[in-house]
Amino acid sequence: MDIGLIGLGKMGGNMRERLRRDGHTVVGFDHNAEVRDVDSLADLVDQLPSPKVVWVMVPAGDPTRQTIEALGELLGAGDVVVDGGNSRWTDDQLAAAHLNELGVGFVDCGVSGGVWGRDNGYALMAGGDAADVAKVQPAFDSLKPPSDDGFVHAGPVGAGHFAKMVHNGIEYAVMQAYAEGYELLEKTAVVENVTDVLASWRTGTVIRSWLLDLLVQALREDDGLSKVEGYAEDSGEGRWTVEAAIDHAVPLHAITASLFARFASRQDESTAMKAVAAMRNQFGGHAVRAAGTPDTQAEPATPGAEGGGREGA
Fold first, then answer.
1. What is the pTM of this model?
2. Residues of CATH 3.40.50.720 domain(s) within the chain?
3. CATH number for region 165-265
4. Given the DSSP bridges, would you call strands 53-56 and 2-6 parallel, antiparallel or unpaired?
5. Active-site residues: which are they?
C-alpha cells in the first residue's frame, strides 16, 4: 500500500524502514530535511493515491493536534489519519470529531516496541471505525511481529490509546519491581554476584521478561550503574493511568506507587520527610540528623529503641 508518515525520529524512521522492507511505498515528512522524502505536508498528500492514509508519529499534545488540523485541510472524504503517537485517549475523540466533519476517518494506534521494533515488530493497539481500520490493515500487518498476536482492534476511537496507556502503566510497575529487587540484592552482603542472579531469572522463572533482559544488559555494560543518575522522568501515560483509575474507582496500588517513586527520584531532599523528622523530634524527642550530615548506611531499626520512647505521641 501507499502511506504517508509524518515524524521520522527513532520510532517513525524505523517504522518507515520496516514498511519499505515489506514492499510498501512510504512517503515521509519531517522537519529534519536530511531524513524527509518531501518538503511539506501538501507534497506528501499530493503523492498519495486515494483513499489516502497518513500516519502521524509526532509528540503528543500541540504537535499532534496541529498536524492533524493541517491534514484536515489537505485530505478529502474517505481518507484516513492514524495517530500512532502517545496521545491521550480523550484527545483522540476530539480529533476524530473534527476530521469526521470533513469526511476524513481517524484511527488511534498505540505502538509499543521501541528501537527494537524495526526488526522484531511492534505491538499495535488500534481504535476506530472498522472501515477505517481496514484501510490501514496492510500497514498494521507489516508492522506487527510475525505471529498471530501483536495487533488488536481494541474498540472505537480512543480504545487503542487507552489500551496503550494501561500497558505503559503496567510497564512502570514492572520496572519498579525489578529495580527494588535489584537494590535489595545490592544492599545485602550475602549475595556477591547480583547481575548473575538477575540473569539466572531470565530462563524458566515466572518473572522472566524482556525488561529483565534489558536490565541485565544494562548491568553488564555498566556494573553497578555508576554512569546513571537515579533520576527518572515520566512521559505522561503513568499519570493518565492513575487518573483513569480514580475516575473508575479502580485501586491501582502498584502502578500508582511506581509513579510516585519516579517523583521521589527527582528530589535532592524530601521536604515531606524533613517535616516527619521534625514532628518525631517534637512529640517524642527522637533524634534528628542535622542538615549537611554525610549519608551513612543506616542500621536496622529496633522497635521502641530510638530516643528511648515509642513512636506514638
1. 0.89
2. 2-156
3. 1.10.1040.10
4. parallel
5. 164, 171
Assign domain 2-156 to its CATH architecture. 3-Layer(aba) Sandwich (3.40)
**Tens digits of pLDDT across the chain (313 residues):** 999 999 999 999 999 999 999 999 999 999 999 999 999 999 999 999 999 999 999 999 999 999 999 999 999 999 999 999 999 999 999 999 999 999 999 999 999 998 899 999 999 999 999 999 999 999 999 999 999 999 999 999 999 999 999 999 999 999 999 999 999 999 999 999 999 999 999 999 999 999 999 999 999 999 999 999 999 999 889 999 999 999 999 999 999 999 999 999 999 989 998 889 888 889 988 888 888 777 655 445 555 544 444 455 5
What residue ranges of the chain are covered by domains with CATH 1.10.1040.10? 165-265
Task: Give the CA-trace dihedral at 15, 18, 22, 24, to 10 degrees.
Answer: 30
